[in-house]
Design goal:
399 residues, alpha/beta, 6-stranded parallel sheet, 14 strands, 41% helix, globular
């Protein structure tokens, strides 16, 4: 056991209207408590002007509506740092292509420093979104003269880095350690000029006591399902390829007596529901559920799908396998690494939706043993994952 105090800065944090946001941060911090490590956690939130709020309302995209200084979940207190964000800032970034990241990060770093006891041993940033937690960590590291670590989770590298290579490479190269949740994500960062000399790959994890096999047939009856079930858990958004669900479902249903279970919400939900109804596909849409209820729905599934156009890691894959459910996923991002031999990976390309549906049918006809899937998933327990992160802290602290 080591006695350290760590400052966490994360772009991925929960708030009252969305407790599951950044749940993989909450879970690792819950386990970290067992190591005698003390920590403070900060999440930057935009304080939006009335004009920006009005525009959001018109286009149907709500911001994060938080007014209290902190939010507590699972015994973890997330302290919020509010920074100014208005319509001009958004216009400058989207239209004028002016980079406001440094200005916003400096504002956040200054507030964290001035409102907190500056004694920490290490700074650990999760994410490189706006304002980049990694850049905030770098600025505070220079001020406090302590090491900083950055964990990259996926869309920060896949979507953010191509448009801001100079800033990303500056933050990553100067970090004492950069953690990537998959080898694929590390290699993607290297393709944008990052050397990788200070990198380590540590995946996200699962809580095996929560995600475990349950009575499948009983749950199906409770949900009113009586056939083989193909399921999805996640955001109904474009990057998850939710727009293609109706086509994938229709291809599967054309050869199999199946039902579909969709757990999650997002901007494409209404469109997907209407299209499935139009095609007369039997789909049960559950909406967003608390993270601790996800295993219940996963256990109703015979096959989980994740046809994402991009994915840093894909925690839902390991969660599904821990419940004894195999996964069919796309070949994008870290999905192939995570699926391993616990499902089927479908390469991008022509007729993707048809080939994806065929892979689902193949798993239905040739199921993988639930016990094997469970054993594979246990390698990704949060206990094992956090142990690897603590080893990183020990290395930096002892050097």
């Amino acid at each position: 056991m080591i006695f350290l105090k760590i400052l966490y800065i994360t772009n991925l944090f929960p708030y009252p209207e969305n407790e599951t946001r950044g749940i993989f941060i909450t879970r690792r911090l819950e386990v970290l408590k067992n190591y005698g490590i003390k920590f403070d956690v900060y999440g930057p939130i935009p304080k939006e002007g009335n004009s920006l709020k009005a525009v959001r309302k018109i286009i149907g995209r709500e911001g994060i509506n938080v007014y209290k200084p902190f939010y507590e979940l699972g015994g973890i207190r997330y302290k919020y740092v509010f920074y100014d964000n208005n319509l001009f800032h958004v216009f400058s970034k989207k239209v004028l292509k002016k980079n406001k990241e440094k200005k916003l990060s400096k504002e956040v770093a200054t507030k964290i420093y001035s409102n907190n006891n500056p004694y920490f041993d290490i700074i650990h940033a999760h994410g490189m979104y706006t304002p980049p937690a990694g850049l905030v960590a770098k600025l505070l590291s220079e001020k406090l003269n302590i090491p900083y670590v950055v964990t990259c989770h996926g869309s920060d590298i896949n979507l953010g880095m191509p448009n801001n290579k100079e800033l990303y490479n500056d933050v990553l190269e100067n970090a004492d350690k950069v953690i990537f949740v998959s080898n694929t994500l590390l290699n993607k960062a290297k393709s944008f000029g990052y050397s990788g000399s200070n990198s380590v790959v540590i995946p996200n994890g699962i809580e095996p006591d929560s995600f475990k096999p349950l009575n499948k047939e009983k749950i199906k009856r409770e949900l009113g399902l009586n056939k083989k079930v193909i399921g999805f858990v996640g955001g109904l958004i474009n990057i998850k390829r939710a727009d293609k669900f109706p086509e994938i479902f229709e291809n599967i249903a054309s050869t199999q007596e199946v039902e579909f279970l969709v757990v999650g919400d997002g901007e494409l939900r209404e469109k997907v529901e209407k299209e499935c109804k139009k095609r007369k596909i039997n789909v049960k849409f559950v909406g967003r559920v608390p993270n601790d209820e996800a295993p219940y729905y996963m256990n109703a599934m015979d096959v989980m799908i994740l046809p994402s156009r991009n994915e840093g890691f894909g925690s839902v894959i390991i969660e599904s396998q821990a419940c004894g459910v195999p996964v069919v996923g796309s070949s994008n991002g870290g999905i192939p690494e995570v699926i391993g031999d616990g499902g089927i990976v479908v390469e991008e390309g022509e007729n993707f939706e048809k080939r994806f549906a065929d892979a689902v049918v193949e798993l239905l006809e040739n199921p993988i043993e639930r016990v094997y899937l469970r054993e594979r998933a246990l390698e990704f327990s949060w206990k094992n994952i956090v142990k690897q992160e603590v080893a990183v802290y020990e290395e930096l602290f002892n050097n």
